[in-house]
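User: Hi! I have a protein structure encoded as tokens and I'd like to know what sequence might fold into it. I'm fairly new to this, so please keep things simple.
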């Protein structure tokens, strides 16, 4: 299973899987694979890769089952930053454990034990965990995605609610599922967050897709139908806006191409007649590279 895709500044494609890390070099048209070696402390910490991220300094960070790793370009090795005594859950969804760098160059890591701030200089973590007695704490410890919007708000998606963090006070505003089907979040289990080229905030959950209205502080569900079937009434796992401003949406039921200019929707999915684009319909990650190719 492929869990994460990242293109670095040199055009190499880093691919995280459940069985190691692969790097595709365009110049040589070859893959180089990295696997955990229990006898080598400088090998990648685990073969189970959750997330890959290149920060503003060009550093490659890899979240594995066991730790946060940084790739050492000069030695072709990995530096490990373990931060829990217990390993991460093997049964966690592919979308969990995201890495994100905000506009202040702070590195954040989503885990099953809360939101982590990683101090790159000291190599230390600070945890933000759910406190049942504190309504201003994060709503749930299982963090599934992190995003900073155009107003520098830090949004945190969890398995039980969406949160907006105030870094100065270190407090969280919580947003939960609404009983109103025309307004509000469709589910508390939030998988992904996405900001489009115009600054629009999108929320993909276990039960569909919403956008956020900054003026009214409301979430707008998007219900669309193709041949009588509601296409967004499914788990939303990934979103990308290509260079033509078309939205590509990865779901549990296939890939959706949404051209918002003409309101045209096309669904790509595995079909029983054998005319298949994919081996399966559960799309976990999407990426557009500099050559305008969709991965």
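Assistant: Happy to help. Inverse folding works backwards from shape to sequence: for each of the 295 positions I chose a residue that suits the local structure. Here it is:
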């Amino acid at each position: 299973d492929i869990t994460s895709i990242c293109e670095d500044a040199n055009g190499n494609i880093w691919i995280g899987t459940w069985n190691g890390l692969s790097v595709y070099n365009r110049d040589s048209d070859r893959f180089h694979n990295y696997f955990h070696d229990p006898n080598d402390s400088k090998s990648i910490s685990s073969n189970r890769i959750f997330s890959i991220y290149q920060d503003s300094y060009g550093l490659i960070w890899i979240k594995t089952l066991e730790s946060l790793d940084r790739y050492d370009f000069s030695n072709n090795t990995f530096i490990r930053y373990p931060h829990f005594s217990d390993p991460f859950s093997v049964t966690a969804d592919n979308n969990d454990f995201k890495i994100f760098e905000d506009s202040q160059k702070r590195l954040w890591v989503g885990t099953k034990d809360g939101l982590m701030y990683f101090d790159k200089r000291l190599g230390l973590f600070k945890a933000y965990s759910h406190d049942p007695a504190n309504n201003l704490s994060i709503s749930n410890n299982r963090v599934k995605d992190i995003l900073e919007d155009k107003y520098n708000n830090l949004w945190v998606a969890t398995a039980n609610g969406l949160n907006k963090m105030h870094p100065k006070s270190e407090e969280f505003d919580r947003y939960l599922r609404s009983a109103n089907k025309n307004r509000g979040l469709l589910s508390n289990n939030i998988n992904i967050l996405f900001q489009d080229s115009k600054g629009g905030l999108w929320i993909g959950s276990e039960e569909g897709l919403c956008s956020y209205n900054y003026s009214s502080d409301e979430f707008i569900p998007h219900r669309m139908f193709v041949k009588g079937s509601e296409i967004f009434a499914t788990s939303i796992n990934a979103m990308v806006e290509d260079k033509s401003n078309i939205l590509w949406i990865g779901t549990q039921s296939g890939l959706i191409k949404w051209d918002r200019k003409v309101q045209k929707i096309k669904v790509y999915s595995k079909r029983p007649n054998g005319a298949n684009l994919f081996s399966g319909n559960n799309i976990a990650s999407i990426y557009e590279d500099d050559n305008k190719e969709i991965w």
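A useful reference point when you look it over: Residues 243 and 292 are 7 Å apart (CA to CA). Feel free to ask if any position seems puzzling.
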